[in-house]
Structure formats: C-alpha cells, structure tokens
Amino acid sequence: MRQLLTALALASALAIPLSARAHDAYSDAESNPLKIASYPVAAAGFALEWVFTRPIHFLVSQPGLQRVFNYKPEYNAFDAPDPYVGSPTGPRGAVEPGGQVLMPSGPPD
Prior knowledge:
- By secondary structure, the protein is mainly alpha-helical.
- It has a domain at 31-76.
- It contains two helices and no strands.
- It has helices at 2-19, 33-60.
C-alpha cells in the first residue's frame, strides 16, 4: 500500500509540469532590461495612485471643500477639446476664409 501511494504521488508530481502553460506567447521584447525594470515602477505608480492621490482627490472633491481647494468637477486637463462641427450655412453664416468645417461622417450609402 505504501508503495502504491508513493507511486501515485510521484506520478502526480511528474504530471503537474506537463499541464503548466504560459498565458501568452513569449517575445524577445520581454527580456529587455528596461521592460523588466518597468514592472516594479508600474506597481509603485499604481500603489502611489491608490494610496496617495485618490484619497486626496476624494478630500478636495467634497462639496463643502470644493471652493477651498478651487476644485471644479467639470474641468479635466486631459480631455481633448471638441471640434467645431457645423455646416457652411449654419447660424454663423458663411465660414470665414480659410476656415475648416468638420462634417459628421455617416455610414456609406
């Protein structure tokens, strides 16, 4: 009985590595020293954001403290400005010389 259990344990220990697979294909770019160094930097940045900056944002975005910290919830410096979408015969009349009008694109007819 002891030999049977030993044989089963040995067989299962040898079978485990056969079922292990990587979750994606390996690329030589993964061995770049800068890429390897970026992993702890990214983890530190993630931790810094969640431990430091998000609690600060929570504090300054409280309705009673918004004026104290000059917080404006509608302002986002990273948003791209919306382009002017109009037509040449819109409410402003004709387009200025050299002006650009962006027309919304729809599905092809």
